[in-house]
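Schema walkthrough. Field components (list of strings):
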Amino acid sequence: MYDLIVIGGGPAGLAAAYEGYTGGAKKVLILERDKELGGILNQCIHNGFGLHYFKEELTGPEYAQRFAEMVRSTDVEVKTDTMVLEITEDKKVHAINTVDGYMILEAKAIVLAMGCRERTRGAISIPGTRPAGIFTAGTAQRYVNMEGYMVGKRVVILGSGDIGLIMARRMTLEGAKVLACVELMPYSNGLNRNIVQCLNDYGIPLYLSHTITDIQGDRRVEKVIISKVDENRKPIPGSEIEFDCDTVLLSVGLIPENELSRGVGIQIDPRTNGPVVYENMETSIPGVFACGNVVHVHDLVDFVTAESKRAGGNAAKYILSEGIQEGKLIQLKNGDNVGYTVPQKIRTGNVDKFVEVFFRVRNVFQDVVIKVTSGGEALSTFKREHMAPGEMEKIVIPKALLDKAADEIVISVEKE
Amino acid sequence: MYDVVVIGCGIVGAATAYELSKYQLKTAVLEKENDVADQTTKANSAIIHAGYDPEPGTLMAKLNVEGSRLAKELCQKLSVHYNQVGSFVIAFNDEEAKTVEEIYERGVKNGVPELRILSGEEALKMEPNLNPKVQCALYAPTAAIVNPWEFAIALAETAVRNGVELYLNNKVVGIEKTADGYLITTDKNVYETRYIINAAGVHCDEVHNLVAEPEFRSLPNQGQYYLLDKSQGKLVNKVIFQCPTKVGKGVLVAPTVHGNLIVGPNSHFVEGYEDVSTTADGLAEVLNASLKSVPGINFRENIRNFAGIRAYIDREDFLIAESKTAKNFINLAGIKSPGLSAAPAIAKMAVDILRDLGLSATEKEGFVDTREKINFKDLPQEEKAAVIAKDARYGRVICRCETITEGEIVACLHSPIPPKTIDGVKRRCNAGMGRCQGGFCGPRVQEIISRELHIPYSEIEMDKTGSYIITGETKVGGNL
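Field assembly_structure (string):
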């Protein structure tokens, strides 16, 4: 019997396992499906990681290595190359690998840290032929950075999320010609620093309010047609631009990987595609926690680390049965212009001093106010000069305010 | 000198090769692509039809009913995913209700067993996610869903195990009559044969006209599809058809044997014999039509769109006969829907024609008529454990979305028709079929193909010849 089993050995799982261990969980196990710890960070060889957490600029593999080493300095057990097939409500984890065969492992608590996957061409139904040369940006990144192979010479990138932007630069540095970065929305969802450092610095044009409307080519991509879109994101006939290219990279969003969570019946929030979590990152099944991109997609790994430490620490607390002080249950609701919140539920009895609430807005805003209201009454406001869907927002709600609130809190963003 | 050469290895060619492999004959199959089942067989609705659609008295009617019965047996023997889920044809008004009655009558005449007409209420009880406005439905319990390319691969593999020679990458470019048969020239080689079976699908007319007077013309007809995530796979239990119109059976909604939801097809005649490009208009047409049957489909959960070509010719019925101007040259042409269902019966009919034309076919001793295949995901827990204990590679999951292990991928790479491409592996063991569409497992499958078949990593292609993945090494250089 393990105290804590962490599913996933990426940044979320590593931080949760380490924090769980230092928090008092004695027998801790990480199950990682890949051959080594670190998750997708291992292929993110660019820098810019760790500015918040380590106060220095690291590459992805360096950031992962720091946590892997922290974990290795403890008694936390690690099984790599191990796939979890199923978890059950009584916290049995069914997993397989080549060494142990079929395992049924029991735990007092579980942390879900399976991360996310990329949305594909199918998710957005791009019409055309289906030749080789269409990759998600992350898959291309793996080919280039892990295996050492190039996947194209003349490239069009759809989506201006961070992975797409990073790959625009990476492909350029490796000698490919990136012809265009095409974004459906009138703004980019990527970090501003990536727009500057990955597109502008290399003269790669960014086509806002455009999308790919046709892919041509029999065996390998030969041509891509993009069109301008109207305010309803519908292509405008006559606005087509053709690119002769052999490659399309897709950076069209990430989806939390919650097949295991759904399998065990954990409540999923349709807004995040991740588990509904309480203030302590516990899911709808007591003792099963979740953190990182499996809960909601983060912009920066530093924030994943912070969230995962909370999940791991709270899992340790749960195991040491300090118990959950239920108190009052508050549901967090998104009001105007807010897409989702994490956590979705707060048990005030379990809040020590404050709760951090993370959320995303639905549009780009200047000079707005974040309003926290309950029962029609304003509890608190926070001013922001700039907000964008690509930037996760955080507010801190003190316990005193929670005590004043009714059983529902609405977070909205309004013009000043 | 071959006794028989089959041209084309889609479902019809594969079924014919399988049937021929039961006899003491020297048989070859010529396929222009680098794998079998790589055209219409891999892009269709994946349905074994009950047999109520075709006009009574047609070949389509006879062979559909017979073929669907044979398909059930074959899928069981050859480890092919098959599930007899049944089908509905639903009606929303009095006129359509009349059509449903007509289809029922037709089905009865065609010999389709167990047909009945359900009230709207009964239909909704069995399929709660149907449009509640459904007035009545024809229920055909014998309709089934199948993995069509696995079906063709299984038949072709079994034929090869029983001595049939398969030549991939052999496009037929010329056929000449000789004293006692034909000389077939491909872009690779020449083959001499006494009899020819033309199973070239939509290309049947081109192949026929290489040696005979034109007697029919292909009219490629395209259908587009959505394939949705397993989250939508339980919306319906059965294959849901709308009432057929003049242009075809219309848009269906059905579960797949893999647990996904398939939605489609529309129907449009196209210029190109292999024009499988989807269009925004075509996809919208399919989407809107399907929502009439099942309003709750969440198309945000789509994982892939594709299109297939129906091998229509310029006549209503299948054309299964000796060419009028080329002796011992048998056309299996115009095999559009229900071609997949009818294929095993078409194959038997083809062999009967060969016999009538004088081919003496003696049954072979030791004909192998089984096919073992481990589908790890489908095994109960104890068997999973036992399989890994026997071969540790079944303990390493390569495709995480579909839970496909290295053991299964290695096994298919050493099967009678080893795939050399990523999609070839996908068609045999499902790696890359899932919601991430091979994003995670693609490079790993590539690595395993390279290792097992000793093909350089960078030369492995996605699917058909020319569908290269790698364009060069990075500055640091490749490490596989």
